[in-house]
Amino acid sequence: MANAKRLLIVDDSEIDRNVLRNLLSRCFEISEVENGYAALELITKKPCKIDGVLLDISMPVLDGFNVLEIMAENNINIPIILVTAEATAANVHRAAKYAVAGFISKPFEPQLILEKLGNIFGIESLPTAVETHEENFGKTETYETDTYISKLTSIYKAYLKNINLDDSHCQRVSKLMEIMLIEYGLANKTELDTLDIRIISKAAYFHDVGLMGIPTELIFKKETMTGSEREIYNSHTVMGANIIWLNSSENCKFFVKVCSDMCMHHHERYDGLGFPHGLKGSDNSVYSQLCGLAIRFDKLFSKHKEINDVQFDFVINEMKIDKGAFFSEHLEMLAKCKGEVINYYRTMDINSAVEV
Q: Shortest CA distance to 12 belongs to which of 141, 157, 204?
């Protein structure tokens, strides 16, 4: 694209970066990074070849406002469009001191984004969102699935924040799924491609989305529930599947199938003593089995302040003691991923947040 403006997308959410890239790549040159540090490396490079930045406010370690502050200190003047799920008065007031060009809200509204960028860069001929979708993506599932996941993420994160919970556990389960699926594909010579792995891993993030359908007080009462309360709490599995099934789009059917199954069956056990259906062995899908394994591993491993080989082995052995909970080959597969898992956890602050 001759003379096209180059935009830098800065967001720790791969799905949100995909949505924005797919929407904008027809009209702009796109670069993308997943954190503020990487963004500053590009922005401060001489000469800077970035014409505008779509900057997520909420990122770990170095958030959007930290990036803005460093840019201001170094007199770097590039149009900044803040991306946020919370365009609150406080955020707008805080952003005003940096003279940002505007806000883009999550979940994304494609046509509004195109109009805003057109106004900022004086481009009058940007295509409509519908035209961009049909020409760039045809009838593939990717665009619509990514958009759905982005919107669902915004809703779920807002719910968790409203009840003073955090989504770090969900993020780690998603990453563990990605790590295990790569190993699973290698070990079983399956045809899982990178897109399959990405969508399945993102689906694991929503395994407990059904909590939105049960009384909030039960979420904080896990150890002292009565029998009837436990029954209500356990119904979050079915509720989660029902929430995901609300999307009947043909273009999202793979994600909906995998995600609803994980929501429904992540509490099943390999010996058939789980819930809600008591599925045994391979009656439960391999993805839901791996999701349940990732959930249990993270619940145990994230309790430890030390992140090392000893603690990893301790948790794996602890999980093996509960015979019948997991397929032994899946546990061995996770054990083979020790190095990558430990490296990942060392990048996460697992002791600072209250989690679901």
A: 157
Cα–Cα distance, 252 to 245 (Å, whole number): 10
Task: Convert the pLDDT of each residue in 164-195 to its tens digit.
Answer: 999 999 999 999 999 999 998 877 766 677 88
| Cis amide leading into 47 (omega within 30) | yes
Q: What does the pLDDT read at residue 68?
A: 93
Q: Please state the separation of Cα 125 from the chain's center in Å.
A: 33
Distance spanning both ends of the chain, measured CA to CA: 45
What's the mean pLDDT in 78-89? 81
Q: What is the DSSP string of 141-169?
A: SHHHHHHHHHHHHHHHHHHHHHTT-BSHH
CA distance 243 to 210: 7
Domain 142-346 sits in CATH 1.10.3210.10: yes
Instruction: Calculate Rg over the CA atoms of the chain.
Output: 22
Q: Where are the alpha helices (DSSP H) in 25-166?
A: 36-43, 64-73, 89-96, 110-121, 129-137, 142-162
Confidence check: pLDDT of 21 > 90: no
Residue partners of 9: CB distance under 8 A and separation at least 6: 17, 20, 21, 30, 31, 32, 33, 54
Task: Give 24-55 pLDDT, tens digit per residue.
Answer: 888 899 999 999 999 999 998 888 789 999 99
- Are residues 85 and 105 in contact, defined by beta-carbon separation less than 8 angstroms? yes
Kindly give the residue spans of alpha helices, DSSP state H, lying in 235-269: 236-245, 253-265
**Domain covering 6-137, topology:** Rossmann fold (3.40.50)
CB 315 within 8 A of CB 299: no
pTM, 2 dp: 0.70
pLDDT for res 353:
43
Check if the beta carbon of residue 21 is closer than 8 Å to that of residue 43.
no
The answer to whether the bond into 79 is cis (omega within 30° of 0) is no
Buried b vs exposed e over 44-74: b needs ≥16 C-beta within 10 Å? eeeeeebbbbbbbbbbeebbbbebbebbeee
pLDDT value, residue 278: 94
CB atoms under 10 Å from CB of 305, counted, come to 8
Where do the domains of the chain lie? 6-137, 142-346
